[in-house]
Amino acid sequence: MEMFSGGQLEHKVMQKTGCLDYSSTEWELVGRNIYKRQISYKFDKALSRYGGEASTTQQKYTLVNQDGWAIEEVMTLQGVLLGDYFNLQLKYYMANIPSKPNTCNVQVLLGIAWLKSTKQQKKVT
């Protein structure tokens, strides 16, 4: 979970993946065992010819019947071709593996939520 702590490791990884001006708010308790934060960054033009920016909202909570966390993220893109037509939705499931110390299982799911219809929908998906 250190990768999602808002600390030095998170900033270093995001910088190496081409995210510029990366900033995140602190995790805020919003419900029983549910935390929320905001993230924003710009895309390095070396990786995305259009540049652009991302704004995300993340919620995290502990997994039921497992030693781990789930993080749900909704990403909004600005300055990206057709970016105002959809949101990206990501879910990260991270669970410790009891038989292997300092080891965890990570599962990442990606989805697209369409806000408006476009002829390019199939191509983007």
Defining key terms:
7-stranded antiparallel β-sheet, single chain, 2 helices, 10% helix, mainly beta, 7 strands, globular, 125 residues
What would your notes on this structure say?
- With 125 residues, this protein is mainly beta.
- It has one domain (8-123).
- It has helices at 8-16, 121-124; strands at residues 19-24, 28-31, 34-43, 53-62, 68-78, 86-96, 104-114.
- Strands 1, 2, 3, 4, 5, 6 and 7 form a seven-stranded antiparallel beta sheet that branches.
- The longest helix is centred in the first third of the chain and has 9 residues, at 8-16.
Topology:
Elements: H1 8-16, E1 19-24, E2 28-31, E3 34-43, E4 53-62, E5 68-78, E6 86-96, E7 104-114, H2 121-124
Antiparallel strand pairs: 1-3, 2-3, 3-4, 4-5, 5-6, 6-7
Outline, from the CA principal axes? globular
Structural class: mainly beta
Tally of helical segments: 2
Total number of domains: 1
Oligomer: single chain
Overall pLDDT metric: 87
* Whole-angstrom Rg: 16 Å
In total, the number of strands is 7
Uncertain runs with pLDDT below 50, 5 residues or more?
A: none
Q: In angstroms, what separates the terminal alpha carbons? A: 29 Å
Largest sheet: 7 strands, antiparallel
Order of helices and strands: HEEEEEEEH
Helix share of residues?
10-25%
The portion of residues forming beta strands comes to over 45%
Subcellular location: Membrane
Keywords: Membrane
Domain VASt: 1-125
Main location: membrane
